[in-house]
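Final report, closing paragraph on structural work. Over the funding period we assembled a curated collection of sequence-structure pairs, and we close with a single example.
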Amino acid sequence: MPTPFFSIIVPTYNRARLLDRALESVLAQHESSWELLVADDGSTDGTWAALCDWTRRDDRVRCWRHANRGQAATRNALLERARGNWVAFLDSDDELLPDHLALRRKAITELPATQLWLAPMRIVGNPLVPCCVHPGEMIHIDHCLGVGMLTIRREAILQAGGFPEIGYAEDSALMRRLLASGMRIGRLTQRSYVYHRSHVDSVTSNQVAANDIIKAAHLAESRLRPTGNLHRNAGAGIGMA
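Its predicted structure, as stored:
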């Protein structure tokens, strides 16, 4: 099997009723050089059976399952298995518009030295989320960092150590690591990632629960942070969707 240009990373937990929308959006991509890596993070609702059906539909879909360990650890496990030179991310309750990967491949081809591409998301539902920098405050998702905004060279994210396993705002913590490394970053304007926030089990749709998780994540991240200077210089103004 030829090496795919993109590896799409999808962790999932008890999302059997939403999986089809996410995975169908990948198969509908105009860009065809991809592999889809999905890990069932200890689901109990039939998610694994649904994933097995998907592997029979398209041999570019590869699936694993393991005991529950959280989104960050699950994404890291999939990153180790990825074969593509570039990695994109999709949450199992979201979806990609058909030109999502094609837009990124065009940008990568035009600016090959760029290692990380960022793009805003299209929001379905409430655009306000709890701020990971100031727990208790609500900010617009456009002022945050969400994993769906990222497309990155696989070797770059692996060298950065992947996602910090801190329970919430792992995306933001990862971005601080990447900024500290001095990598070249490009920006796209098209909103081709669709972020669904209208269902009740979305973490950020529940403000009280999200704020509790943020507080715990701040404590966990403080134990991972190399120095205070690194955090101040690299992380200023970054939030998390």
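The two ends are 36 Å apart (CA to CA). Confidence is low (pLDDT under 50) at residues 204-241. We thank the funder for supporting this effort.
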